[in-house]
Amino acid sequence: MPRWVPSPLARRLATAGCLSLAAAALVQNAALVAFGAPVLVALAWWLRETRATRADVTMDLPSPRTTERQTVDLRVRMAADGPVGSWRLALRPEEFVGNDGAVLATLTAEVEASWRVTPVRWGYWTAGTVVGSVRSAQRTWSADVVVDAPSLTVYPPASQASHVPPPPHLQSRLGPHVSRAPGAGVEFAGVRPYLPGDPVRRVNWSMSSRLKGLGSDDLMLNEFAQERMGDVVVLIDSVHDLGVPGRTTVDESVRGATAVVQAYLEVADRVGVVAFGSSLRWLTPTTGTRHFYRIVETLLAARQARTYVDPSVDRLPLAVLPSGALVVCFSPLVDALAVETVRDLRERAHPVVVVDVLTETDIHPESADDELALRVWRLERAAVTSSLERIGARVVPFAEVAEGSLSWVRLGGRGAGVRR
Amino acid sequence: MSPRSALLVAASLAAWTALLAAALTSRASVLVTLVAGLGALGAWHRRGRVASLAPVVGCVLLLTTGTSALAAAACGVLVLVHVVLVDVADEAHGAAAAPVLNALGVLAPGLALAAGAAVVVATGAVAGDLAAGGVPSTALLLAAPLVLLCAVLVALGLATRRAFWSYLKAPAQVSDVLKRYLRRGNLRA
Lengths: 420, 189
Prior knowledge:
The structure holds two protein chains of two kinds.
Chain A: E1 5-6, H1 8-27, H2 30-46, E2 55-60, E3 65-67, E4 72-80, E5 84-92, E6 97-99, E7 103-106, E8 110-119, E9 123-126, E10 129-136, E11 141-148, E12 151-155, E13 170-183, E14 187-193, H3 205-213, E15 220-237, H4 249-266, E16 270-276, E17 281-286, H5 289-300, E18 326-331, H6 336-347, E19 352-356, H7 368-390, E20 394-397, H8 398-402
Parallel strand pairs in A: 3-12, 15-16, 15-18, 18-19, 19-20
Antiparallel strand pairs in A: 1-11, 2-4, 4-8, 5-7, 5-10, 6-8, 9-12, 10-11, 13-15, 14-15, 16-17
Helix pairs in contact in A: 1-2, 4-5
Chain B: H1 3-24, H2 30-40, H3 54-63, H4 69-91, H5 97-104, H6 108-132, H7 137-160, H8 162-167, H9 176-183
Helix pairs in contact in B: 1-2, 1-3, 1-4, 1-6, 2-3, 3-4, 4-6, 6-7
């Protein structure tokens, strides 16, 4: 239990008593002493009361993990080991974790309160700080019990994509995407004449009988398309974190990357991640829900621990960037490192989609020089974008990503990449 | 009436009685009494804690020219009751009756008894002034012991049956089982 201090009631009674005694001394009137005496005697009597020595705090959070804008209920119970007059409980909010702001005042010996906590930014936060003010039984002493609420891991919002475009290059492993090559799948691809050794069960008897009526003795065989797996690698460029807190480039990058990762993992593709900038972290592409959480934990660390190691993709193990894997790079494109990385990836014949996460909002040039500088800056960015598109990378603004669909991942022409 | 309103009404009555008693034994301006009485109403506002000290300041100003120490002591007790009740009312916002009774449990018997005694003493002290002003003080002098008797009974009740009072809920919240029990006339038996 923290230190007990005189309560507001005790301070008010002391003020009343001292005021009357001071006035009595000033005007030399015994009536004022008689006025203040009951107040001071009662105060002195009440201040002798016994107080609790310990407070038990129990906090219950249904799950330590949640997503942005999702509400969780925090329950707190406080009880003291001695006589208590009243409790007042409040939850002091964190910067990016809001709550309904309820303050619970109760005149009982123990208190149980609950708050609806809503985090608005992904990351590792606490649900707030619980502040309990307790009064002694006769209300002349008060103490504050301050306890940190449980920690909360906040994930970016889930993907809303209803259709996941297949990556341009499909690997040889069995997977969810229909390829152009014929093989053992379930998707009908066409018919061809029967050859010795073909399975008889795949003969298209209706077509063969029609051909026999036309004078041909050939049997026709159904062909099916192969179903292959795609590899997707998501790159996060966190060298610079620009923008207002909650909408910074790293914030938006992680939100977009999570949506891409979740969408491709749900259709059973292999997904990997490379986070470079603050430090170089990677996860080799693989499948599964457990891998999704590993990737998200890696992405959540994108804002933390800065190092002096050059975050070049040359340092990555070969397995992290499988040949032909679709690379989705989230970058504000303000650093030469990101541009060089994309160029490097294109030279390795990876199909690359670059998401420009730097959005221009609230830019108000105040003078002609500012206007000129802004125009030059925009031209420079247009030149960077143009140079990336010239080497076959597709550059899309983040606004398209924020719409929720994944149609922006579709590549064509040179962007699909030609393996050398 | 909510428990908080009841507490504030009781607090205001205590403050006004104290101010009246102080005004009757003093030669100060009536304006002080009025201003302090209105200031006591500030306690109805949730942020009006400082206003709860208005009766204290008013009484001190009035008693600078006071003549009766007995009346001043009674005023002090009534002001004490006022400050305590306002403090409890501050935290009784939206509370049910049972927790308020629980919170008052330790203080209530003493406060009730002190308030009753203070009213009797104050009435006795100002009876002469009232009679000089043409107010029928005899009736007041007869009523004052009745107030004291009521205060004693309430204090005894709070001290002895506090747990039972806290247990009883509002009539609308009485359980069906208890309603059936009462309907069968068991309470009368």
